[in-house]
Write a sequence for this structure.
């Protein structure tokens, strides 16, 4: 018998399916974290229409709200690599042989 419950790796929201994979992954992670429900905060902003069109084209996102969610999701889901890389500067012994 097949389970009707979606797996966590699959987006539960049908609109995520139209998004390109990395962006759908961001929305799926936000959903797993419970950050796609209880939407009570309101945002209003002006953006360049060409920027908006290019972002929609790049992501496959259909609505402004989803586009903002994807962008905010990228901010909170960063893996911290740039900071870790910067903080490791000077920690490798200068005499170590890095040749392959």
């Amino acid at each position: 018998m097949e389970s009707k419950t979606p797996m966590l790796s699959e987006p539960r929201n049908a609109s995520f399916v139209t998004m390109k994979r990395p962006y759908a992954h961001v929305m799926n992670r936000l959903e797993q974290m419970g950050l796609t429900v209880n939407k009570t905060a309101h945002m209003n902003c002006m953006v360049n229409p060409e920027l908006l069109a290019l972002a929609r084209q790049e992501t496959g996102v259909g609505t402004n709200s989803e586009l903002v969610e994807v962008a905010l999701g990228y901010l909170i889901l960063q893996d911290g690599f740039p900071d870790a890389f910067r903080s490791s500067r000077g920690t490798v012994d200068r005499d170590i042989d890095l040749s392959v």
